[in-house]
């Protein structure tokens, strides 16, 4: 379940706009675009985790050539960019939730639902 805030807050979205500019949403945390952003974040983190597994395999392969490694480095860079954006967005929402008196939410509730369910954000 999405976290609703006591009042509107700005959320960094997990995609960028024209010219790679960050996209922000003014939200209470419960709208349609917030739910889409939650799903996109979950997909981005899952894809990053899967890419790490592929990277481990490719780096162990002595036959991997420079082109394969360059491609891998590019995809890892993109996945890291996405993960940092998710972390920045969630961190800002946590700070807002902690600073909002009467929000009734603990800081962990501001995170997306896959946390604590063994999803991409789960501790291993």
Provide a descriptive summary of the structure in words.
- The protein has 124 residues and is mostly helical.
- The protein has two helices and two strands.
- The chain has helices at 32-60, 66-99; strands spanning 9-16, 22-27.
- It has a two-stranded antiparallel sheet.
- A hairpin with a 5-residue loop joins β1 (9-16) and β2.
- The relative contact order is 0.18.
- Mean pLDDT is 81; it is low at 105-124.
Q: TL;DR?
A:
The chain is mostly helical and 124 residues long. It has helices spanning 32-60, 66-99, and strands at 9-16, 22-27.
Question: What's the N-to-C terminus distance?
Answer: 23 Å
Give the neighbour order of strands across the main sheet: 1-2
Net shape: elongated
What is the structural class? mainly alpha
Number of helices: 2
Rg is 17 Å
Distinctive features:
mainly alpha, disordered C terminus, 2 strands, 2 helices, about 120 residues, single chain
Task: Please specify the SSE layout and strand pairing.
Layout: E1 9-16, E2 22-27, H1 32-60, H2 66-99
Antiparallel strand pairs: 1-2
Helix pairs in contact: 1-2
